[in-house]
Amino acid sequence: MAENKIICTANQVGYSEIRKAMCAGARTADEVAKLAGVCNQCKGCKENLPWILASVCGCKNVSLQAVIDAVKNGADTVDKVAEKTGAGIDCGRCKALVANIIELGR
């Protein structure tokens, strides 16, 4: 994503801030609210947070669940997750999130 599109219109929180919160361990809307400051009530939050939270790699359309499953099945490095899911192969912007998923196991 070239620009930091505003997702939470009430608090002016962009996509990048939400992804940074996810890289810091946020996996739910409430956790993103605490770490990134989204309101969870505006139209932008209601329409966009569910798919942002469910996605890890937009380039390869890899879901959070697919990465979690890969980790549970033994992928213990970013490269191993990439081999199993494709996440991080093209642009690499999701590698920090994949690393956090490996670290937390969720």
List keywords for this structure.
6 helices; 106 residues; two-stranded antiparallel sheet; 4 strands; single chain; mainly alpha
H/E element order: EEHHHEEHHH
**Strand residue content:** 5-15%
Number of domains: 1
Which range best describes the helical content: under 10%, 10-25%, 25-40%, 40-55%, 55-70% or over 70%? Answer: 40-55%
The computed structural class is mainly alpha
Q: List the strand order in the largest sheet.
A: 1-2
Q: What would the average pLDDT be, to the nearest integer?
A: 95
Count of DSSP E strands?
4
Low-confidence stretches: none
Helix count, DSSP H or I runs of 4 or more residues: 6
Radius of gyration: 13 Å
Distance between the termini: 24 Å
Choose one word for the global shape.
elongated
Largest sheet: 2 strands, antiparallel
Tell me what the structure shows.
The chain is mainly α. 53% of the residues lie in helices and 9% in strands. It has one domain. It contains 6 helices and 4 strands. Strands 1-2 form a two-stranded antiparallel ribbon. Strands 3-4 form a two-stranded antiparallel ribbon. The relative contact order is 0.15.
Describe what is shown at a glance.
This protein is mainly alpha-helical.
Helices and strands in order:
Layout: E1 6-8, E2 13-14, H1 15-23, H2 29-36, H3 43-54, E3 55-57, E4 62-63, H4 64-72, H5 78-85, H6 95-104
